[in-house]
């Protein structure tokens, strides 16, 4: 049986970090998933003047202060990508490739960097379209696979799949130099549409098309409606109340993912509220 956490936080921007601090203060057993870079968007900000107490600082400087605070509180970030989260009644199952975590409550703080789905993507999800190449690799033994990736660190998944599939086409959507196995065919083009019959059989690009048995789309984060089945959305944002509650019991959300304005101080405040709401929920569950 998996170890069960009181709380799992998905996202390491200001909302997720603020939630983690409050979970630590309230002495809950929690885990936070994200990256030790914390937030790419924050790091790129040239100057921030609307974060109380941090005037005239760059995003990178504020990020460094966040890191010091995490170190002081002895909070570490689990650098693993959550592919799916399932509500199991009195707990949530969080899937990471072939691994699973359990938590009584969750806070979604993944930001809004998941991009717009391709035409046909949602229609063929689970019918040839997937978001985790290593999870589904055995299904594509000796088959043709296409991978679209938005970050250089996904190259490990590409290389792994190239040892299983008969052919791998790779569309890197980033600017850095691509370093993948020689057997992988790199295609510099823009994906437009996924088509098929009952399953995927073709990817239409701006200047060409690829016949393929499967397509993996490796974005920095999965759209929340796809990450957590049954989650109520308001357009591309998660619908929450003032306590950051979603429509799923024990599931809370905070930060850019719940809507505008996309401000760091607003995200941190919502992370604080989400954590306090989650703590109340966890205490309620433990009394039963």
From TrEMBL:
This is Thioredoxin reductase TrxB. Pfam families: Pyr_redox_2. It comes from the Bacteria. Its EC number is 1.8.1.9. Gene3D superfamilies: FAD/NAD(P)-binding domain. Residues 5-143 form the FAD/NAD(P)-binding domain. SUPFAM superfamilies: FAD/NAD(P)-binding domain. GO terms for molecular function: thioredoxin-disulfide reductase (NADPH) activity. Transmembrane segments: none annotated. Keywords: Flavoprotein, Oxidoreductase. Signal peptide: none annotated.
